[in-house]
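User: Show me sequence and structure for the first protein, then do the same for the second.

Assistant: Starting with the first protein.
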Amino acid sequence: MLAVTLAACDKPATPPSFQNTDLTGLDYARDFALTDHNGKPRTLADFKGKVVVMFFGFTQCPDVCPTTMAEMAAVMKELGPDADKVQVLFVTIDPARDTRELLAQYVPAFDARFLGLYGDADATAKVAKEFKVFYAKVPGKADGSYSMDHTAASYVFDRNGKIRLFVRHGKGPAPIVHDIKQLLN
């Protein structure tokens, strides 16, 4: 009698090799309770089954926010049909100016599938603390004007709503596409 062993059957699955910072297993960035730009209350559970990319910013940002949103639009385009399995969320850190109406104009201008999220000052502070996101109002040159300093990165969650990646600003779409494809497989 001939015994045949299939070594491939015993081989454990190889963990993904991410190009962005792997946050798998961290005990923060677990959830949020905000409202989307359509007026619907949202939590992370609403997007179960999709890879979620979450970015904190503000609509009047002159550089980091629009370039990140444009970069994510390029990622979605490059993903092709798989883009429908991804949800991009833009969380405002400037709720005083970023109204629901403004978010509804700004965020989907990059991709119709993107959602803007907002809360009052307390809800924003709570979510920023949970995600360890820094933000601060910086006085402008004109009376009453201001800008916002903030963490310039995105968080990526797998289809089960678990934090997986930290994506630094300005790396380009390729490493994000690479990592999202791994999370979708």
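Switching to the second protein now.
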Amino acid sequence: MENEDQPRMRSVVSYVKRGGRMTVGQQRAWNELWPSLGRTVGELPEGPVDFDDWFGRQAAVLVEIGSGMGETTSQLAAAAPELNYVAVEVYDPGLGQLMLRAEKLGVKNLRLMHGDAVVLLTSHVEPGSLAGVRLFFPDPWPKKRHHKRRIVQPEFVSLVASRLAPGGTFHMATDWENYAEQMMEVCSAEPLLRNRHAGEPGGWAPRPEWRPITKFENRADVEGRISHDLIFERV
């Protein structure tokens, strides 16, 4: 149930629910690993998720929206064992592959959510509770008539900001110039956020060395597009 601290959810979603057959390994991951590692957003009980109970420890919680096939996410979670790392994704094979990658790396601090991140943040995450939110290379919806489907809109940024603890970060990356500019404009207008790198040229964050190069970045480089990172902090 919504209250004054929970912005209304968008009627236009930012993703397409893709199909796709799972490999034998991905299906095994769903059968064997999902019961302990994953939950479905639409099946969560009312109210906030008890992340301490789910992870079996108290630690700062970071949510990554759109983990794709999990190559980057598994490495990021493995590199930050001090975090309770939550990956949110709608693509079934992607979650299966992420579980396989995490298993191979011996990752213990990762949990998975299957479903809409906006619903998760709105209905199942306490205000002021997250150490960070990451959104790396979201669907750019490059055609102008589809820009309304981009996830980074004022309502969404307000929602993210409300869920961050003071000092918590919202880290975005995209290889589409006009989407990066939209992210910068929308986040700069959010009163609960400040740009950590406002003093840098254009306000862009230097590309963090710890963020693995994704297939999207490699493709962008081939196609002559420059990737931008943006890091905003909850005031």
